[in-house]
Amino acid sequence: MSLNTFGHLFRVTTWGESHGPALGATVDGCPPGIEVTEAQLQHWLDMRKPGQNKYTTQRREADAVRILSGVFDGRTTGTPVQLMIENTDQRSKDYSEIAQKFRPGHADITYFQKYGLRDYRGGGRSSARETAARVAAGGLARAALTALIPGIDLRGYMVQMGPRKADRARFDDAQISANPFWCPDPQAAEEWAGYLDTLRKSGESVGAVIEVVARGVPAGLGAPVYGKLDTDLAAAMMSINAVKGVEIGDGMATAALTGTENADEITMGKDGPVYSSNHAGGILGGISSGQDIVVRFAVKPTSSILTPRKTITVQGENTEIVTKGRHDPCVGIRAVPVGEAMMACVLLDHLLLHRGQIGDAGGRIGDTDRS
Ligand SMILES: Cc1cc2nc3c(=O)[nH]c(=O)nc-3n(C[C@H](O)[C@H](O)[C@H](O)COP(=O)(O)O)c2cc1C
C-alpha cells in the first residue's frame, strides 16, 4: 500500500517537498494516443501558481512543468508519464524562526509526533506546493477525458468567501475567469475584493467554499459499494490541504429536506431520462446518473497569519508565534484549480474502470432488447 498514490487504473503518485529541488507526479495507466503538450498542462498550473494577483501569496514560483516520459510525438504512449516541476523560490530563511516552534493550524506538530522529525522549511511534504503535482496530473486527466467523452465540461469556482455567499441568481460562467476569485457572481467578486483587502492589510485570513461541476459525464461511472464515485470524489477533495468538509449535491442540506423535496423525479425525454432537479449531485447509489456531478468543499482560513498565536516548542515550552513569510489571505482561491484537477483524475479513473468491466454492455432505457 502506498500512501502517496490515488486512483485505481489512472494511478497518480506524487513525490517531492516544498523546498527540495523539484516535485512532481508519476501517472500510470493513462490510455495511449492522448494528445498532450507541456503548454497544455502549463495552462492549468498557471491557474494555481502563486503571485497571480494581490490576493494570493507573493512567492515567485514559475511552476513550469516538464514531461519526462510517457509522451512521444505529442501523444501518450501508454507508459508511465513522469511530470516534474522545479522549485525555484525556496527562501528557507523565511522559515528559520519556526524550526523549533509548531505553527498552529499546520501539520508541524502532528508530523513531528508521527515521524519524530520534520522538514520545517515550509512544511516539507505537508506543504500545499504538493498540489502543483496534482494539477499537472489533472491536466493530463482532462486531456484524456476530453478525448474519450467529447463535450465533457469541468469547472470549479468559489461560491463563498468567509460568511459571504455568492448569489446563484447572478451566476454567469463567463465571469469565472474574469475576476481573481474564480467567482461566477460578478457582484460578489467585487464585494469580496474589498473584504479580502481589509483582511489582508490587518494580517488576517479567511476560509471559502469551492464548487466543482462536471457536465456531460455519462451515466454508469462508479460502483454500488466500495467503488462509489462519490466515495472517491470525497476522498480526493478531502485530501487537498486545508479542506475540512466535502458535500455531494445538496450534501448536508439534504438532512433538512423531506423525501418529496429531495428525490429528483424522473420522466422520459426524447434522448433518455430527464430529472426534475439535481439534489443528488449527479450520483445515485455511487453511480453517475448522467446529470451534472456537483461537489463542494470547504477550505479553512490560512493558518499562517501575522497575528501572534500561542504555541509550544519542540522542547515543550510555551511560547508565541507570528508566521512571517508570504502567505495567501484566502487559500480557497488557489484551491479552485486543485479541486478541478482532483475531479478530472477521479472521473477518468472511473471511466477507465467502467470501460474495463462493462464496455458497451450497459442498460439502455427504452431499448427493450438491452434494458
Ligand atoms: C493551494 C493551497 C495553498 C496554501 N497555501 C498556504 C499558505 O500560504 N499558508 C498557510 O498557512 N496554509 C496554506 N495552505 C494550507 C496548508 O497547506 C494546510 O492548512 C496545512 O498543510 C495543514 O493541513 P490541513 O489544513 O489539511 O490540516 C494552502 C492550501 C492550499 C490548497
Automatic annotation (TrEMBL):
One of its GO terms (biological process) is amino acid biosynthetic process. FMN binds at residues 125-127, 241-242, 285, 300-304, 326. Signal peptide: none annotated. Its cofactor is FMNH2. Its EC number is 4.2.3.5. Gene3D superfamilies: Chorismate synthase AroC (3.60.150.10). The keyword Amino-acid biosynthesis applies. NADP(+) binds at residues 48, 54. Reduced FMN (FMNH(2)). SUPFAM superfamilies: Chorismate synthase, AroC. It catalyses: 5-O-(1-carboxyvinyl)-3-phosphoshikimate = chorismate + phosphate. Pathway: Metabolic intermediate biosynthesis; chorismate biosynthesis; chorismate from D-erythrose 4-phosphate and phosphoenolpyruvate: step 7/7. One of its GO terms (cellular component) is cytosol. It is an enzyme of class 4 (lyase). GO terms for molecular function: chorismate synthase activity; FMN binding. Keywords: Amino-acid biosynthesis, Aromatic amino acid biosynthesis, FAD, Flavoprotein, FMN, Lyase, NADP. HAMAP family: Chorismate_synth. Belongs to the chorismate synthase family. This reaction introduces a second double bond into the aromatic ring system. Homotetramer. This is Chorismate synthase. The gene is aroC.
